[in-house]
């Protein structure tokens, strides 16, 4: 193997330690330690601590607070501590963790070095995505070539070493700088150099992997990044000798693990016991009749609150389904310049969908208003960016801006009302556009435009299969979700994670259009779905900040007008009750829920417009009947699933390999952003500065922050609102069927065996008993139950994909 190949392979191996970071305009929640998921959680945390400097467990004070609040069962904690070999009182052990933590934190050096300071300046200029008015020259040649062309003009770089005459290619530079070091150290050197700025390197990894417009136009690679970094290190005399820190688990970490396991078990036992009781009750109940309407929401934890209040307001069913509605598309709206990937990051888009106008008069009205707004925005941008006019513009426009800022600050609720009134006068795209879902026999890039008839049928059938549907109401609503905030760089983090940080409304419109297609309905009936002639499908979007559910009802027949009016009225009532609950969780007056959430949506100084997915801890895969009578406090992802309609386990397999993985990503980002916000989160919004439309700094420069801000996680300084627990998944299905799915997917058993999440099954075929996954496809019965009559699968997998009992 030649040297170039060795360098490429070494970089690829080293880069696995760094997680992906998506641009902030399409923020995707992901496990910051995803590169360590092939290791047990404890080892991965220690390895990340050595490499990145982050803490991996909640602080002792957080555990102490959880104990006082009853969130950790003392008996469970005593058992976990005894199993780990500790007999002292919990408070004594917490003091021991605290002492060890104080010593460790006292020796941490967080000061940025000169190489980092210089390099982040170059990266922010090169990786800018439309924010800069004056761009870095020669970006189209690639990062290394652009740097090489103008580096001589940077007075912050010493005129020493290789930097004075950079080789033509990045590989040559890397090879030259590494010449004094044996090849056995190269992976370690690369790993530490990449980990020095994990935010920027994570963004580069994602950009290379994605390969979209910005990367195509202005290419960069990890090889180019390392070449520049190593050249700067050579110029400043930095020693590249890798450190030899060990990965032995610290005693304090062992204690923290025991407290964490007890906390998680306390939450999990309560959730599982409640679902097992509901499962037993449901077995003796009669089937419900046809509902007035069925509403399908994203599995997002925020949907649980509004769903609960909708069901309380009438004869409605709600269901949970992944927020991209199972259709992986690249979507381009009517007024947008670029398309977005509206599907989870673990999938690739399979179709290109765009909006096309169907109402010329409404389109003309929209274009007229939109054109005025666009022209005004363009004039302002030009005046602000032009050195000759900027000062005069500020002088003349200052009073107007001052009044606008004062209004946003002093009366944000009135501003919301004003914006609503303005928006009401401008037609939305869905009022005059439809998604082009019919197959066009053309391509945009590598993606076919639209869907074939068979593809439409398959997407619709898959949705109803996964949710276990056998009956359809007169109205079926697919409700995507989006947030509404002002002056918030992290706005995309509050949108739909299953749509890669984009609103879910477009995907909902696509599925509704598919299901309203008469040819699709006929095909679905032939496949056993009894869809009545009077069933109408429509789309909508749930605003998670204000809990308003907007219905896209432009094509609803007059025969359903009464149903629609009643649904709207009940949605308004559900909103009042849901916002009261949300307002109280944010320390506001619950009687002012609607107005308080509207204020937060438009207040440009509001650092916490909503809690987002803070509090998430569970993922329930079961019929809605099992959770509809439970108040899950907005902490559980809910995916509808009926094991009795899924004899082959195909639907269950799709849920465990897709949504469960995505929810684990979300959960781990919230976990690590909470336990060490400085390393894995993004600090306070108050001191953040956006950079290049790709991320945020803390202060005026440095590394890109990789996770969530403090205000999305903490009720106050050092007082977490989010309870940092790993995800507890609960599945309602025969345990044998779940074992069969796991046996076919090593990537799932790896996550479970390494304790990145837990899995418990409530088995309706075994008297509704619960089984907790241990390791190597082994299960342990939960609670007080006789094991003699229980069929517990073991690790011996038979040829047909099932398990040997």
Principal-axes shape call? globular
Beta-strand portion reads 5-15%
Radius of gyration, rounded? 28 Å
Number of helices: 27
Point out poorly predicted stretches.
106-111, 796-805
Arithmetic mean pLDDT: 89
Largest sheet properties: 6 strands, mixed
Please state the structural category: alpha/beta
Give the number of DSSP strands.
Answer: 21
**Strand order, biggest sheet?**
13-12-18-19-20-21
Short description:
Helix content is 44%, strand content 12%. The chain is built from 27 helices and 21 strands. Strand 20 and strand 21 form a beta hairpin.
Model description:
The chain has 805 residues and is α/β, with parallel strands linked by helices. It contains 27 helices and 21 strands. The strands form six sheets. A six-stranded mixed beta sheet has the order 13-12-18-19-20-21, with helices on both faces. The protein has a five-stranded mixed beta sheet with strand order 2-1-9-10-11, sandwiched between helices. Strand 3 and strand 4 (340-342) form a beta hairpin. The protein starts with a helix and ends in a 24-residue tail after the last strand. Residues 106-111 and 796-805 have low confidence and may be disordered.
């Amino acid at each position: 193997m030649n040297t170039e190949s060795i360098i490429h392979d070494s970089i690829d191996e080293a880069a696995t330690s760094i997680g992906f970071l998506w641009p902030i305009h399409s923020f995707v929640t992901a496990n910051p330690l995803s590169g360590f998921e092939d290791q047990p959680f404890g080892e991965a945390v220690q390895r990340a601590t050595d490499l990145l400097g982050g803490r991996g467990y909640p602080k002792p004070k957080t555990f102490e607070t959880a104990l006082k609040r009853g969130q950790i069962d003392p008996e469970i904690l005593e058992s976990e501590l005894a199993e780990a070999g500790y007999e002292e009182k919990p408070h004594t052990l917490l003091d021991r963790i605290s002492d060890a933590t104080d010593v460790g934190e006292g020796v941490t050096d967080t000061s940025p070095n000169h190489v980092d300071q210089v390099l982040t300046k170059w990266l922010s200029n090169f990786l800018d995505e439309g924010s800069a008015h004056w761009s870095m020259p020669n970006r189209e040649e690639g990062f290394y070539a652009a740097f090489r062309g103008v580096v001589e003009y940077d007075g912050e770089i010493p005129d020493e070493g290789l930097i004075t005459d950079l080789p033509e290619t990045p590989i040559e530079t890397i090879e030259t700088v590494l010449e004094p070091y044996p090849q056995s150290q190269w992976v370690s050197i690369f790993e530490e150099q990449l980990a020095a700025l994990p935010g920027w390197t994570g963004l580069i990894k994602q950009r290379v992997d994605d390969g979209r417009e910005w990367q195509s136009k202005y290419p960069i690679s990890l090889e180019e990044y390392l070449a520049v970094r190593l050249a700067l290190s050579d110029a400043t005399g930095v020693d590249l000798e890798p450190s030899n820190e060990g990965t032995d688990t610290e005693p304090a970490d062992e204690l923290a693990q025991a407290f964490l396991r007890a906390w998680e078990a306390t939450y999990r036992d309560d959730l599982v016991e409640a679902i097992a009781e509901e499962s037993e009750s449901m077995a003796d109940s009669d089937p419900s009749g046809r509902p007035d309407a069925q509403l399908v929401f994203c599995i997002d934890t925020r949907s649980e609150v509004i769903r609960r209040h909708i069901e309380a307001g009438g004869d409605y069913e709600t269901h949970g389904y992944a927020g991209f509605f199972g259709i992986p598309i690249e979507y381009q709206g009517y007024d947008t310049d670029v398309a977005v990937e509206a599907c989870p990051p673990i999938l690739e888009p399979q179709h290109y969908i765009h909006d096309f106008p169907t109402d010329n008069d409404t389109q003309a009205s929209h274009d007229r208003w939109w054109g005025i707004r666009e022209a005004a925005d363009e004039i302002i941008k030009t005046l602000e960016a032009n050195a000759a006019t900027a000062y005069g513009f500020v002088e003349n426009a200052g009073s107007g801006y001052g009044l606008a800022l004062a209004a946003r600050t002093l009366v944000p609720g009135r501003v919301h009302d004003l914006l609503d009134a303005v928006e009401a006068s401008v037609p939305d795209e869905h009022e005059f556009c439809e998604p082009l879902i019919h197959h066009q026999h053309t391509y945009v890039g590598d993606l076919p435009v639209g869907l074939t008839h068979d593809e439409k049928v398959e997407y619709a059938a898959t949705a109803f299969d996964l949710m276990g549907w056998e009956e359809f109401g007169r109205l079926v609503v697919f409700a995507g979700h989006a947030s509404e905030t002002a002056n918030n760089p992290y706005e995309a983090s509050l949108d739909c994670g299953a749509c890669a940080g984009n609103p879910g409304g477009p995907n909902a419109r696509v599925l509704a259009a598919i299901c309203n297609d008469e040819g699709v309905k006929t095909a679905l009936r032939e496949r056993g779905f009894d869809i009545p002639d009077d069933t109408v499908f429509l789309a909508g979007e749930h605003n998670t900040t204000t809990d308003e559910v907007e219905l896209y009802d432009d094509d609803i027949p007059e025969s359903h007008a009464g149903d629609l009016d009643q649904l709207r009225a009940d949605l308004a009532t559900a909103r009042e009750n849901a916002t009261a609950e949300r307002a109280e969780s944010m320390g506001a007056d619950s009687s002012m829920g609607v107005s308080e959430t509207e204020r937060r949506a438009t207040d440009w100084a509001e650092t916490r417009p909503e809690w987002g997915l803070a509090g998430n801890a569970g993922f329930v895969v079961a019929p809605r009947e099992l959770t509809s009578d439970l108040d899950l406090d907005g902490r559980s992802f809910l995916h509808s699933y009926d094991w009795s309609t899924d004899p082959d386990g195909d639907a269950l397999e799709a849920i465990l390999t897709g949504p469960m993985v995505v929810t684990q990503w979300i959960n781990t980002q919230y976990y690590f952003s909470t336990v060490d916000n400085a390393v894995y989160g993004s600090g306070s919004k108050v001191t953040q500065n956006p950079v290049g439309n790709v991320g945020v700094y803390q202060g005026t420069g440095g590394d890109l922050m990789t996770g969530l801000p403090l205000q999305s996680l903490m009720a106050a300084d050092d007082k977490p609102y989010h309870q940092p627990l790993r995800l507890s998944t609960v599945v309602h299905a025969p345990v044998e069927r779940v074992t069969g799915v796991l046996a076919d997917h090593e990537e799932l058993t790896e996550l479970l065996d390494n304790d990145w999440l837990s899995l418990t099954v409530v088995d309706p075929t075994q008297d509704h008993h619960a089984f907790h996954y241990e390791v190597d496809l082994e299960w342990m019965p939960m609670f007080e139950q006789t094991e003699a009559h229980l069929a517990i699968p073991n690790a011996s997998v038979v040829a047909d994909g099932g398990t040997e009992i």
